[in-house]
Amino acid sequence: MTTANILIVEDEPAIQELLAFNVAQCGYRAIQAFDTQGAQNEINRALPDLILLDWMLPGTSGVEFARHLRADSRTREIPIIMLTARTEEHDKVLGLESGADDYITKPFSPRELMARIRAVLRRRAPQMTDETVAVEGIELSPTTHRVNANGVNIDLGPTEFRLLHFFMTHVERVYSRTQLLDQVWGDHVFVEERTVDVHIRRLRQALEASGLDHLIQTVRGSGYRFSKQ
Ligand code: CA
What we know:
Layout: E1 5-9, H1 13-25, E2 29-33, H2 36-45, E3 50-54, H3 62-71, E4 80-84, H4 89-97, E5 102-105, H5 110-124, E6 133-135, E7 138-141, E8 146-149, E9 152-154, H6 158-168, H7 177-185, H8 194-208, E10 216-219, E11 223-226
Helix pairs in contact: 6-7, 6-8
């Protein structure tokens, strides 16, 4: 299964450690930042799969930072859960209007927070959950790492597996090579765009035996898409 990278932006060391501990306990990878500048540096390096964002931070607030992330096409779709000590209803509305997907009030129980993380990931980043996906005769199971296409078992390398999982959970949408590098590779500072073409070719070759390789389509001048048509 793909491990989701969770960026925790929290300036209070005790809460930061508590969050990182719980995130790791759930099998996710915790990336820690103590202010929005640190968070931005991490995001520039690799897109996280979800951000836990404290509202009250030194310098730029969590709400401002969420707005900034939503305004940038590269970071627009990263799920955000806002953490706050504020309990008033209008604060909650402001938090959600800034672009957060969910909102949790301190003090929170780790169980509740983890349930929210799972729910947001399932909704916003289905390739990060371990649920079996089935599209057009292909069935992919993240837990057993198996792919069956038209009754044929398909052997895939880890990158092709992640690529197919991403495509199957984002059907009919066109992704550029850069977007695929961001979404599937994550940390890709030293990865060239043509690497994407190499793995697409391998994925198609692996699917050939099932006759379903045509689902992986090249969109000239734009990138690739997984399409049923
Ligand atoms: Ca704080």
